[in-house]
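Predict the assembly for these two chains.
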Amino acid sequence: MIPQAIISQLPILQVIVPLIAAPFCALLGGRNRAWALAFAVSLVTFAISAMLFASTLDGTVLSYQLGGWAPPIGIEYRVDALNAFVLLIVSGVGALTMLYARESVAYEIDERHHGLFYSAFVFCMTGLLGVTITGDAFNVFVFLEISSLSTYALVASGAKRDRRALTAAYNYLIMGTIGATFFVIGLGLLYMITGTLNMADLAHKLVEHGDSRTLRMGFAFIVVGFGLKLAMFPLHLWLPNAYTHAPSAVSAFVSATSTKVAVYLMLRFLFTVFGFSIPFEVDVLRTIVLPLALIGILAGSIVAVFQEDLKRLLAYSSISQIGYMLVGITLLTPGGLMASIIHLFNHAVAKAALFMVAGAYVMQAGTSTISDLRGVGRDMPFTTAAFVVGGLSLVGVPMTVGFISKWYLVQAALEQGWWPVAGLIVLSSLVAFAYVWRFVEAAYMYPTPDGVIRREAPLTMLIPMWIFAGSSIFFGLNASLTSAAASRAASGLIAASSLIWQ
Amino acid sequence: MHHHLILRVVAKLLLPFILLYALYVQWHGDYGPGGGFQAGVIFAVGFILYALVYGVDALVRVVPRGVLVGAMAVGLLLYAGTGVVSLFLGLDYLDYSRLAHDPVHGQEWGILLVELGVGIAVAAAMTAIFVAFATREPDIDDEDW
């Protein structure tokens, strides 16, 4: 079928196919040429990550060395069950948002900027895929910067619709750069101790090294750096504005992928690199990250209830959903980890659908303010129905993906006897119902204001939107594939760490 | 007559040497300190000096914006493309051993090509950043501050 020579090169092709396509997008320019290339490339990337996913599902670990230099010295790309799963999420969301982007971007961005816009979009995808696939800690930083810098530009390109996109992008730039800097400082400290940057080698040498103040500092810097990137509760301030003012396709793509990739990095560093070889690491997670995650879950949901803008509401809901993933991590059990990993997928699917709905409103109704969208359920029935499905998934209603992840999470919390945590998760689901209902009520229970004409979104936007909405039902009914992947990934992480789990 | 006559003459005298020095740093990178990034910056400095003395419009006439975007893309493609060539030669990405008759020369040529790509991309990006800031039309009039 496919020659072995190509199969062995898949890990690098995953990154360089979009990397090479991105400058071509800039050269091709407008009139859908850049879009066509970006869309074709995103499909190829998705196919590659599907192949990688299929070949790692049985627990195989693929290793690829760049430039013919063997791992501890050269850069290694390493694909296991966990990052193959994340690669699949990123490239899948990328392909579908690219389909969605055609109409949405044509409406929201000047045609003379299309070439550069799609170039930045594909670069962002390259960066996220690179961060996920690499087994080299410094390479993580390089790709993190590629994805972040292009995201800043993408957020700023929302300035045609709303000038506030510029300040949002600038805030994100400052906060994101601080996050990346913290990560590099932490990495520098680790390099000081071990003299290596390969993740597997780092893990090995850190266990030998034992406890020291340098290691603790490095750990703290890296956790805070990722905390900024994944919008952990008090470090989330960049997120609401960035998601609100970015062009709709960018909001959908970035909300579904970039924080997820940061959560993946957190998992990778906590379990594979640090591996909990010193008690300090567990203490930090339990006494600092866990309370912050719980506050984030509740505060994010409560603030979301009071938002006037639909996109901002969804952004605050993201902060609370990230809290769930962090709680799952801090449980430090296979069940909790599995809940986090499965929620990566489930939340990506639901949030992408919801932001696509918001983007369809922006295009067809010219606004994403909830009070201006009264009665929109009658004018745009398919779009609004997709919102209802995605919203139910955020709440965690049975038969949606949100239920699956919350079920696993509550179960894992109860196993540990963390009753208050389980209670808080259920409570925040009720709050989530409040903010979802606010919009559903406005969309269905009020008449359309006089003189407002809104047409249903075009098919190229409805199809990706409904693929996401549909998969948030499909994987809610039949979670065998996602839970198999998540539990395989979770047991891989636990096995790599020094945690002892009976 | 022009203002700053001395500045104009000196700048014009310096320009070729700046560009030449950039090329020296570019090609000397594998024997001594230097390489694509530094060379690119020095090369861009030549263009920026030209714009500072003769005005940014003159610079945009010499290198239009499209050329800058194109050069950035070409530079990156040269870098990434060199790696891809080694894929077609049956080696891993960025392994240049088969680019020439023997591995040592192959590695050298590979690095030279990659550094050339870096140099072009950096020079274009630096100039583009300068042009972007220098030609920006203010949204607010000076009196309105």
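The mean pLDDT of chain B is 87. The two ends of chain B are 34 Å apart (CA to CA).
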